[in-house]
Amino acid sequence: VVQAMLWPLLPALVLFSVLSVVQVQTAPCQTCRKLTDSFIKGLDKTSNKNFGGGNTAWEEENLAKYARSETRLLEIVEAACEKSDFDCNKLLEQIEDQVETWWFHRQQEAPDLFEWLCIEELPLCCPPGRFGPDCKECLSGPGGVCGGLGRCEGEGTRLGDGECVCDPGYFGQLCQSCADGYYREKSSNHSTPACAACYHSCKKCSGPENYKCLECKPGWLFHDNKCVDTDECGTELARCSSNTYCHNTDGSYECRGCDQACVGCMGSGPARCKKCARGYKLRGAKCLDVDECSERAIACPGLNEVCFNDEGSFRCECADGFIRRDSICVENQPLSNYVCMTSTPHVHEKARE
Hints:
By secondary structure, the chain is an alpha+beta fold. The chain has five domains: 2-124, no CATH class; 126-179, no CATH class; 180-229, Hormone Receptor, Insulin-like Growth Factor Receptor 1, Chain A, domain 2 (Hormone Receptor, Insulin-like Growth Factor Receptor 1, Chain A domain 2, Ribbon); 244-290, no CATH class; 305-352, no CATH class. It has helices at 2-6, 21-25, 29-45, 56-67, 70-78, 86-94, 96-106, 113-121, 292-295, 335-352; strands spanning 130-131, 136-137, 140-141, 144-145, 150-152, 164-166, 170-171, 177-178, 182-184, 195-197, 202-205, 213-216, 220-223, 226-229, 244-249, 252-257, 280-283, 286-289, 305-310, 313-318, 322-325, 328-331. Strands 1-2 form a two-stranded antiparallel sheet. Strands 3-4 form a two-stranded antiparallel sheet. The protein has a two-stranded antiparallel ribbon with strand order 5-6. β21 (322-325) and β22 (328-331) form a beta hairpin. The protein is flat and about 105 Å long. GO terms for molecular function: calcium ion binding; protein disulfide isomerase activity. Belongs to the CRELD family. It holds the Pfam family DUF3456.
């Protein structure tokens, strides 16, 4: 009876009156946490609603009735999820019975709705420091979960494998070792010193300076206690496709496109071409655009056409006052006049007959 009265403004709930635990488990922990947080905010918002001023004894009596009433529960539920939040609304539909149970019977003994609903009752979440379907304990060290230097994969949820995802600069089962590119700082007290970044070219080092490298990152050569960039472009290490050239960068290289004037090149610009592209000609040391309009005797042979030079090519367009019709540039007149002009000879021939 309570159920029928409680959800009149949520018609979709009728479709979910009988749901299996498997269906509920499909909702993620973060959705359940968001829903319960919103529910608690609704509790605070409705704590003194419609009361304030007047007969104090009457207010206290009626406020006590309202505090655990179906009316108040419905008000909170209606505002628990945003209309556009599909996951929240879906979960709310699925946990109708559990919400009623907590509201009418379990609030006193289980005041933490999130813990009771999301961890114990459904279950979708785990307590802090635990993960996975069975809420196993995350790996911990002197500094806490993952030694305080990382996070436990899946912590607080029924997901994840519990492995430590270390903070930048750390690695290991409990994130206690310095990762490549980092070194252990010196400490004046008894605490474990932090890991700090090496010079950018060092894979292993004893300090932050460039001369304290112990091992170099790929693309660098160890020389005189320093890591010196390898110029892959000057060796056979670079692999660039046709019509691109090698550009050296710190610790690596990149292939860049040749200038449009080139067919193959050794660097940037029209002066580094191996061969000039069509529409270009070698002048001095550069491949420069050929002006076909001035170099060709008749670049545009069509009647009433004008030549326009483009970079690496040219185009033929109709002269001012002319328009192209049937691949021919004719005087720009209304189409009816054009038809009459072209049909006139036939009329004259018929007249002579």
